[in-house]
Every structure is written in structure tokens, then in C-alpha cells.
Design brief:
This protein has 241 residues and is α/β, with parallel strands linked by helices. Helix content is 32%, strand content 26%. Helix 4 crosses helix 7. It has eight helices and 13 strands.
């Protein structure tokens, strides 16, 4: 299983009423536990063994809570933001030595159902420099932003008017080190720029997932995620009886 770059360095300004000025979003208590616990446990259950946490705001608190990852059955490395903030793309670029030639990228405020082994097999068959998981959202859970055609992502545009796209970026992609070649070390750029570069070159495959995403980046998303994870715990309790 490829290692996972987990971006969890944002300020979480939309959730400031819950986080206050200090608590990082990844440590928000959801369904009775810090959200990062659910995220890491989910990755481990899918077969992931290595996670590289890319941290900014609240880095020390998250690092103290997660430790070396052994409690989750993982090996966790920490790459903190430096003095200069480099954006999501720049943060991943800085962590390439820890990630290797091929790796997953995802976010610390999302809870996603991705068949990791199946997606990795699809990525290898596609022979491209990247793969984006997508969901046929049709503007239901957020504004759709992706066009998918014959197994390739052909357009990716955030903020598109409703009805423009059927699919949405699901929030978990596979990237190669070569995808970052156009971006020099130490420069500031967004991960979306990497994806756009791959699309322009016909190098971004797509994989459609079946289950909706959950997130804690908004109050409504937090409430839905809390209810979903509480329901999952109850289902697990019934299964264990």
C-alpha cells in the first residue's frame, strides 16, 4: 500500500466557534473522540501502514496526540510547516523525501470510503502520473467540480455554477513524484495547480467511488459526520454482541 500524505495544517476558520484560537481542527471531538483518531483508524483498516502528517496550526498538539502512530497500527512521520507557508502543493512538495515515488494525498478533515487496494490497481493499469477519486455528486453535498471522460479527469474547476459538473473531487488522490516536477522546491502553490497540470497533459486518471463523503470543515458537515460516526459505532457494537 502506498504511503499517505495527510494534510492537516489549516487554520479551520469556518469552525472557529468550536475550535477557538488554539485547538486544531483535526482534534475536534466528533462522536466522542478526536477526529484524527477516526481518520487514522480508517486508513489503517484499508491497509495503509505509513502516514506522513503535514502540519501547521496546532502541529505540536496533533503530534503529541498521534505519537508514532503505533496506537493506530501505523508508522507516522511528521513534516511541520516551515517559517514560510508554501500552500497545500508546496507542503506536499516539501515532504517528497518521506513519501517516495508514489503516494496518496488526502485531508485531515474528511472521512472517506475508498477501496484503496482497488484504486491502486486501477492507477497502475492507467499508467498515468496521477489519479483522482471522484463521486457522482450532482451538486448534492457540495458544488460539483469535475468532468470525467473515458477514465480521465478532463476538467477540474472549483466554484463552478450549479449544474456545470456531475462529479466532485472526493478528496483522496494518488500522485507520483513526477507530478511535482514543474514546481521548484520552496515555491508556494496549491495542490489544485498540480492536478490542473496533470489534466492539461492528459495524465490524471479518475476512479468513481460509490459512497458519499463526510467532512468537519463546516458546521453542517460536522453535524452530519458526528451522526454518521455515532451510527457506525452503534452498528459495530451490535455486530460485536
Amino acid at each position: 500500500m502506498y504511503p499517505v500524505a495527510l494534510l492537516a495544517g489549516g487554520l479551520g476558520t469556518r469552525m472557529a466557534k468550536r475550535t477557538g484560537p488554539r485547538l486544531p481542527k483535526a482534534l475536534l471531538v466528533v462522536a466522542g473522540r478526536p477526529f484524527i483518531d477516526f481518520k487514522l483508524a480508517q486508513l489503517a483498516s484499508g491497509g495503509v501502514t505509513r502516514v506522513v502528517l503535514l502540519l501547521g496550526h496546532g502541529a505540536e498538539a496533533i503530534a503529541d496526540h498521534v505519537g508514532d502512530g503505533a496506537a493506530y497500527g501505523l508508522h507516522v512521520d511528521i513534516v511541520p510547516d516551515g517559517e514560510a507557508l508554501l500552500g497545500t502543493g508546496g507542503a506536499v512538495r516539501r515532504a517528497l523525501p518521506q513519501l517516495g515515488d508514489v503516494f496518496w494525498v488526502t485531508y485531515g478533515d474528511t472521512y472517506l470510503s475508498v477501496p484503496l487496494t482497488e484504486v491502486e490497481e486501477a492507477f497502475r493499469r492507467a499508467g498515468r502520473q496521477g489519479l483522482m477519486t471522484v463521486f457522482r455528486n450532482r451538486d448534492a453535498w457540495d458544488s460539483s467540480n469535475v468532468a470525467l471522460r473515458e477514465g480521465l479527469v478532463t476538467e477540474y474547476r472549483k466554484g463552478a455554477p450549479p449544474g456545470t459538473f456531475e462529479y466532485i473531487d472526493y478528496g483522496m488522490s494518488i500522485l507520483t513524484v513526477g507530478a511535482f516536477a514543474p514546481f521548484p522546491p520552496g515555491t508556494t502553490f496549491d495542490l489544485a495547480e498540480v492536478l490542473q497540470s496533470l489534466i492539461a497533459a492528459g495524465e490524471l486518471a479518475g476512479f468513481e467511488v460509490e459512497e458519499r463523503f463526510y467532512e468537519i470543515g463546516s458546521e453542517a458537515g460536522f453535524q452530519e459526520t458526528d451522526a454518521h460516526l455515532r451510527g457506525a459505532d452503534k452498528r459495530q457494537e451490535r455486530h460485536d454482541l
